[in-house]
Amino acid sequence: MILMKDTPQILTKIVSTKEGEIKALYQTYDIENLKKEVAPSPLSFYDKLASAQGKIFITEFKRKSPSAGWINKDVAIEKQLQQYRDLGTNAVSVLTDHFYFGGTYDDLEKASAFLQDTDICILNKEFVIDEIQIYLARKFGAHIILLIAAILETEQFIHLKNVAELLGMGVIAEVHNLEEYQKIETATCKVLGINNRNLNNFKTAINNCNYIANNINHTGYIIAESGMASALDLAITGKHAKGFLIGTSLMQQDLNLPNKETKSYFFKACGIREAAHLKENLADLMGVNFSPISKRKVDFKILNKVQIRRNMVPVFYQNAEAEILEILEKYNFEYVQLYANDVSFEFVQQLKKRVILAIRWQGLEALKLVERYAPFVDLFILDAPKPGGGKQIESPVPKDFPYPFLLAGGINIDNAKAVLKYDNCIGIDVASGIEKDGVVDLRKSLALSRFFSELVY
Q1: Nearest alpha carbon to residue 257 among 89, 44, 135, 452
Q2: What does each C-alpha distance from 212 to 182, 208, 224, 422 come to in angstroms?
Q3: Which of 251, 274, 309 is the last residue of a domain?
Q4: How far apart are alpha carbons 431 and 409 in whole angstroms?
Q5: What does the alpha-carbon distance between residue 222 and residue 243 come to, in Å, rounded to a whole number?
Q6: Mean pLDDT of the region 357-374
Q7: Same domain for 338 and 422?
Q8: C-beta separation of 58 from 89 below 8 A
Q9: pLDDT tens-digit profile of 221-261?
Q10: What is the DSSP pairing of strand 64-65 with strand 69-70?
Q11: Domain limits at 438?
Q12: What is the CATH number of the domain that holds 381?
């Protein structure tokens, strides 16, 4: 087996463990008997995708992971799958790797028995490096397998894909970067899974899905993997993805699937700094400013009195990187907003938060900067050259700006329809436009919130 030169260390460890497990499998099962015993899949994943109305969900049963540790150790698989059925899942992913993910073939067999009278396909999520794993996946009820490009040679990948498809099974080809895709491009895979999680450092950046899709010539189905937990996430990854694989958030008992068909724009209210306002859901995202030069900088005494919620976004501009890390260590923010070139590129690459990256737009030259950061961030904001000044962007933004973004810079209720000019604008970021005499005006904020909840793209 040939691993790529930059194969993540965790994958190297998993493959090494898996090679030992496969030796044990060959001692337990006779491969020739397996080939005779297993029946072709009664459900076609490819047909299911072809007939799907709108986008699909693959919900995952995963007890633990190397990055999160134990997620939900003792839940009965039947209970979890019933909840997924109630949510309207299209397919279910079941981990069978035991050492790193706490899964077993017993879980797969139980899932198959529980779902046998439904049209819900089952994905065996496994690190497949040998055909015996495919026969066992089918034996215990799987209709789909995952093939990870990073751990397979091209010829090996094609062989395993052919074995699965001869059994009537669907194949999801997983890649994390362009090099991995180029490795399997000749396999002409019908379904491409783009993993937004970097297994070198476990950083998740959901715009990675769009970056890869923009830079390949894949005509098949794309499924976004890792990091989706909200309607905003789906709006970002849904630019190219027709399906979403969601696991950790559901296993943590956040048993809500984000609205996969949402078309409304998103509203980020920035400069929220009063305790009463921070306790309210004024917008989809609420920016909390920590910039030392901003008139909207939040008072730490006020921040210490409120609960940090998922939609709060700390905004940093001209802060030292050490100060940013100190604040993120103290407060449990899920997101962070940074400005390109205000911190180092390496800092953005390594930061294990959901990164919203603001670009001070001064013309098309900024597109080079956008492309450099695109695989490492979750969402872009296009702002005026002087952030927080209440001035609109003067240099034209391309109608076909390549990635989902929020429009900032002097936005208010009177000019908010500017979002309609752009193919990939999914919302706005407003500070001065929700203020009166320098103070956040709830009426202005609520008016914008209502306006954008009714405006669809």
Answers
A1: 89
A2: 11, 6, 11, 21
A3: 251
A4: 9
A5: 7
A6: 96
A7: yes
A8: yes
A9: 999 999 988 889 999 999 999 999 998 778 876 656 666 55
A10: antiparallel
A11: 266-454
A12: 3.20.20.70
